[in-house]
Amino acid sequence: MKKASREKEWTFQDSLKEFLKDPEIKKAYDDLEADDQVKRALIELRIRTKQTQKKLADKLDTKQAYISRIEKGGVSPTVNYIAKMADALNADAEIIFRPRGSKEVIKAILVKEKKGKYKTK
Q1: What is the domain range of residue 65?
Q2: What is the CATH number of the domain that holds 93?
Q3: pLDDT tens digits, residue range 47-64?
């Protein structure tokens, strides 16, 4: 009778670990992570506010396809556009910086002014 093989199956995570050993690939992967977090937050906020991509696009005077491209990662919106999206989704947008090794927090809070412009406080 043959013994069952004890070899581990090669998984996507195994491949990813191997690829990430290359410093250039790791840097590109890490660069995408920040975009993915913003994208996921915008999608979650849109869903929580029960808005379709079309409804959000109408509020932003753009096309549904553009919102779709943002959510899929095909386009990286500017910080100003992210603030406009947050406003259209009835939310505030903040960027928080934490110097490494410090508990200090530096915030860039995007606030809509009466003239429709955004500023940092």
Answers
A1: 17-120
A2: 1.10.260.40
A3: 999 999 999 999 999 999
